[in-house]
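Incident log, support desk, overnight shift.

02:14 A customer reports that sequence design results differ from what the structure should imply. Their input is reproduced verbatim below. On-call engineer (initials T.W.) acknowledged and began investigating.
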């Protein structure tokens, strides 16, 4: 297992412009959302808005701060701190 120092990793703007993401690990290594088998990222949500479409990927979000509310297919989901929530990227 490798120790990752997040502070030294680059932040990439989201496709929808609503935040940034920092890639922690991926398979294959260095893969983008377009060509990965899996990825682990830490994201900063800058403003409310739709998530980017990531066709064919299953997503799991784990809030690292409180106060996150998602609306998916009209259903509202209030997420608790460190409470994983899975949804489709489609």
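02:41 Re-run completed on a clean worker. Output:
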């Amino acid at each position: 297992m490798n120790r990752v120092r997040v502070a030294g990793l680059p932040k990439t703007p989201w496709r929808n412009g609503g935040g940034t993401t920092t890639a922690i690990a991926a398979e294959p290594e260095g893969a983008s959302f377009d060509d990965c088998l899996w990825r682990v990222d830490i994201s900063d949500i800058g403003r409310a808005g739709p998530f980017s479409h990531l066709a064919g990927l299953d997503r799991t979000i784990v809030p690292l701060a409180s106060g996150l509310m998602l609306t998916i297919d009209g259903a509202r989901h209030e997420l608790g701190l460190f409470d994983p929530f899975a949804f489709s990227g489609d």
